[in-house]
Amino acid sequence: MPIYVTHLQNVKDDVICGLLKREFGTALFCYNNKIVVRSLITLKQLPGTTNLEDVVLLGHNKQIYELSFVNQLKFVLSASEDKTIRLFDLNDYTQKKVYRGHEYPVYCVDSCSNANYFISGSYDHTARLWVIDRKDSLRVFAGHTQAVTCVGTHPNCAYFATGSADKNLRLWTLEDNMPVRLFLGSKGTIYSTIFNNNGEYLISASDDKKVRVWDLVAGKELLELDTNCDLVSHLLLSNDDKILITGTNDGIIKYWNFEEIIKNEKSDNVREPISQFSVNANLVNVEHCFDTFGFLTYQSVS
């Protein structure tokens, strides 16, 4: 299976987070409280610019923890230690809005692909629902007893999930602030969660080195995968839900046959990775397009 690794060159400090968008020839990455926008194509300038240099987006005064695209590549949201989420326009590279409401650092943000809202999660133990055009949150979701460390929106944009340092996963509806499901079983902080593309399953990774698949209808754990490696920080499914990617911050990538794992959920024989390798660098982001997986990496300066 072909892979594409985009390695960030000339980075002066440790990269905290980033996004890869090969379809548009662009990568975004964050360090020193700023967002850098870079063209992936040699000698091709970014849209709306007059030179070949990176574009730097400024506004945050503390560390940026996560980015999320809005409306494909038109805008990007950023979640920060400075307690704000910010919206930047990727056409003219300006800051459009600052969203305030969280009482402590904002660790995560995720926007729905076909709706005008996004979800954030914070060290203040809450998640919040926002509409792009409004600076104040529409709804506060309380229930976790420790920091909300990851959020993920459902494909139908009517639900979202939160993972927390309290080792719990919660499924919420946008209609009210009461959780629809509480998923128990993780033995550590949950750092990543995604839905499969048809919305039947929720997948989570925690620092107990396990990846768990949860049945949304039954409201319980379906199975778990033992990664036998350091903390899985990146989860991604192929667009057809056949292949699951798990990745660690230090660049260990594993491919899992998700389709077969689901079909044979009772069998341990299919719960081993079908392929694994190292990108020999720090992993920043994973994406799937052109029927291939792409990896955004950098080399630590320390």
TrEMBL record:
This is TAF5-like RNA polymerase II p300/CBP-associated factor-associated factor 65 kDa subunit 5L. WD repeats lie at residues 57-98, 99-140, 141-182, 183-224, 225-259. CDD domains: WD40 (cd00200). PROSITE patterns: WD_REPEATS_1, WD_REPEATS_2, WD_REPEATS_REGION. One of its GO terms (cellular component) is transcription factor TFIID complex. GO terms for biological process: transcription initiation at RNA polymerase II promoter. The lineage of its organism: Eukaryota, Metazoa, Ecdysozoa, Arthropoda, Hexapoda. One of its GO terms (molecular function) is RNA polymerase II general transcription initiation factor activity. It comes from Agrilus planipennis (Emerald ash borer). Keywords: Repeat, WD repeat.
